Amino acid sequence: MSMTSQIAIDVMGGDHGPEVTVRAAARFLSRHPSAALLLVGDQATIEQHLSAQSGVDRDRIEIVHADQVVAMDESPAIALRTKKSSSMRLAIDLVKDGRAQAAVSAGNTGALMATAKFVLKTLPGIERPAICTALPNESGHTHVLDLGANVDCDAEHLFQFAVMGSVLVEAFDDNPSPRVGLLNVGAEAIKGNDTVKSAAERLEAGPVNYIGFVEGDDIYKGGVDVVVCDGFVGNVALKSSEGVAKMISHFLRQEFKRGVFSRLAALMAMPVLARLKKRVDPGRYNGASLLGLQGIVIKSHGGANVDAFGNALDVALREIEKDVPRRIDQRLETLLQERPKA
Amino acid sequence: MSMTSQIAIDVMGGDHGPEVTVRAAARFLSRHPSAALLLVGDQATIEQHLSAQSGVDRDRIEIVHADQVVAMDESPAIALRTKKSSSMRLAIDLVKDGRAQAAVSAGNTGALMATAKFVLKTLPGIERPAICTALPNESGHTHVLDLGANVDCDAEHLFQFAVMGSVLVEAFDDNPSPRVGLLNVGAEAIKGNDTVKSAAERLEAGPVNYIGFVEGDDIYKGGVDVVVCDGFVGNVALKSSEGVAKMISHFLRQEFKRGVFSRLAALMAMPVLARLKKRVDPGRYNGASLLGLQGIVIKSHGGANVDAFGNALDVALREIEKDVPRRIDQRLETLLQERPKA
């Protein structure tokens, strides 16, 4: 078991807990014959959910009992101080101890970030970890960071995000030179604030394939591989995008119900709409990376279903296989040698 | 003519210039029998485009010749200094002189804002004007500001935007108590930055129906009437939303072309899709208000078509009828008397 990739799952995290995570775990093992899982949470509950699954390869599952759970709305500071035997904390401890190469949780984002940072520490040279995820674009996907870990960023932070995002995409997508853009505003008046302008200067001198400023719609067009922004802006962009997609889907359902002819058209259009849904399904892109840590931690959406949580597990496995944290660390080391310290 | 509502149109502004603006002007006059227009731009060009329109009520049109045009990519500072006889500048001058009650332009946003601020001045107590527009939501529309005029805002600016947005919606939608929300992030970690937190404190004490923090997706849900944010965040939210909508539309077209059955389904679904398109068409919401000025200035999208530019004209007319700037001014006066100066 020690030669395989091992992922620790915070089984109790998320809106649905073991109902989703254990089923996703079982399917993950079928998809990946050489991977193994550490299921962290209440032992009896996990056993119960496991026994409901047929054909689970129990040899590749180890249960790690945890008697605490971090609540979805718990303060990160309180979770960090009082929940030292939570499923979330123990999953990250397993990465720290080298028993797992990645931890995956659908739990409280703030607590996960705080705990991961406290237990695993950031890579040398990284001041703040960032949350990065892929979003669909017209021809593939775009990675965006930060998505909410850092609501106030200076130019150095944005620069570090750009480097981390670029290395992630190089490794993850086998893309030798990802196009990196800084998210900015399109108003002709005053192109961007001082932070963005200063980050642009650093990137122009720099170590990534920086293509300049991009705007919100560029995330979905396909001309840029890594979009860099502070966590406030990134979170709003992500949530606004989800909101529009939901509204369009809502309107589409309403319009297809308007009258007999529309209902008939809906029947005809069903396979088309199913394919569309699949292409824009946020679950397909579930699994955000907490970048900049000395270890791999993947955040699943709290409301993820079995397929979506499975995607987060796949992201974790791929980051293990591609050795993402070590590659970021190496790039940073080169950079730190080259750059005069700010 | 002096008793009617008069709108000055920057005929030369926008990607399409008089091709769109003059046609939209002619249709606007048919829709609104008591309104009158001042068409500002190259006289010969305007005459030529007008003569191509049939049934135009020339009695309600006055042409104001302008021999300069502000380019779409021109620096606002240079436009302000060197384009004193541009169609944009003269349209705003007409508002200043009381010959028009509103100016509408599809030109360069930055130049329009700089010129409007310079010529008309801000209302007493307002430090910075903001750009505000309506966006569709599941049950109606949501007004969002600022959308790009101010990329760095402090809590006082956000507070002022909230007041201005609330008064706009009170007047515009005959809504006695618009629900006002502050745009914030949903990451559980650290709810918002200091600016947003401090703005929230002021609004909780305050003069609008403040309902608390909202997230990006709330713009499109329908539970809030006015969403307040800085111009950087607002611009990114707007552009990201447009990007997602375009991508979904692109995927939908692709999927409906995949195979004979899908093409057939597309034919059947056409009326449904046309209705959907109409509901989410950004042109329906074209016409952003430059709020906080001593006068009404409406910014049309640069790429607006005739219908969309017509919507911007309708927004201008409604703001005239509802006396929006005076109502904002009155509210501010009350507030300034009540509040200790910061």
Automatic annotation (TrEMBL), chains A, B:
GO molecular function, one term: phosphate:acyl-[acyl carrier protein] acyltransferase activity
EC numbers on record: 2.3.1.274
Enzyme class: transferase
Catalytic activity: a fatty acyl-[ACP] + phosphate = an acyl phosphate + holo-[ACP]
A GO BP entry: phospholipid biosynthetic process
Classification via InterPro entries: FA_synthesis (IPR003664), Phospholipid_synth_PlsX-like (IPR012281)
Pfam families in the cross-refs: FA_synthesis
Biological or metabolic pathway of the protein: Lipid metabolism; phospholipid metabolism
Alphabetically ordered keywords of this record: Acyltransferase, Cytoplasm, Lipid biosynthesis, Lipid metabolism, Phospholipid biosynthesis, Phospholipid metabolism, Transferase
Superkingdom as given in the UniProt entry: Bacteria
Localisation: Cytoplasm
GO CC annotation, single: cytoplasm
Purpose of the protein: Catalyzes the reversible formation of acyl-phosphate (acyl-PO(4)) from acyl-[acyl-carrier-protein] (acyl-ACP). This enzyme utilizes acyl-ACP as fatty acyl donor, but not acyl-CoA.
Assembly with partners or alone: Homodimer. Probably interacts with PlsY.
Family to which this protein belongs: Belongs to the PlsX family.
Protein name according to UniProt: Phosphate acyltransferase
